[in-house]
Every structure is written in C-alpha cells, then in structure tokens.
Amino acid sequence: MTGHVTPAENRAKARILIVEDEAMIAFTLEELLMISGFDIAGVAGRLEAALEIIEKDVCDAAILDTNLAGVSSGPAALALTKRGIPFIVVSGYSAAQQHDAAFAGALRLQKPCDIDHLIFALHGILPAHIGLSSREPT
Question: Which sign does the torsion angle of CA 132, 58, 93, 104 carry?
Fold first, then answer.
C-alpha cells in the first residue's frame, strides 16, 4: 500500500450534505451514513435549500440527486465545485441522459445503489485528513 493513512482517531469526522428530493431515500441515506460514522451537514430536498447549506460552508462532501422535483441540481454542483467540495451524483438517470455540464467529471452511482459502494466512493473523494470517527457503529 502506498501513501500515509491518518489514523481514524486523528481525523475529523466527515460532514456530508445530502441533496435528495425523495424523503424516504434522503432519510435512509441519512441514517445509513450516520451508522457508518459520518456526520450529516444537512439534508436538502430543494435546490434553494441545498444552495443555502453550501453557502454556509459546513460540508466536506455531498451526495447529489440530479433532479430535484423537476429542477436540476446543477447550480448546487457548480457551487460545490467553486468551493472545492467533492460530490457524488446518485441518480436514477444515466450519464447519457444528463446533459448538464455541472456534473461533468463527477463520480456517478446509479439508483438504486448499494450503500457499501456509496461509502467506498465517499472515502475515495474525501481528503485524507477527514474520515470517520473512532467510535464503532451502533
């Protein structure tokens, strides 16, 4: 293995923003991420709410659904990119169905996605000094 991995007890707990308009999916993601040791920076079901949370600069990474009740989350992707905050697109739409340049280059997972794949992907986009807490999931 190459590189230096910071021990979990010395890393800050990653704060994840969830941008998802389907309440049950958002709730499930929130619960599973917390069980997996992440903090939730916020949950936004609408673009305006997502932009407000991003503006507060309280998240280390985000999970974005591309379609929020018929409105593109592209402006949220652009706001995250402007701040250097990594994000993962989790959508029922394929990359071929999405033509918004705001999502170009983003890691994509197709709904429904396996939570283990999502957790692995989050670890992959987070800086090394940010990670899980040292506590065990309950």
Answer: negative
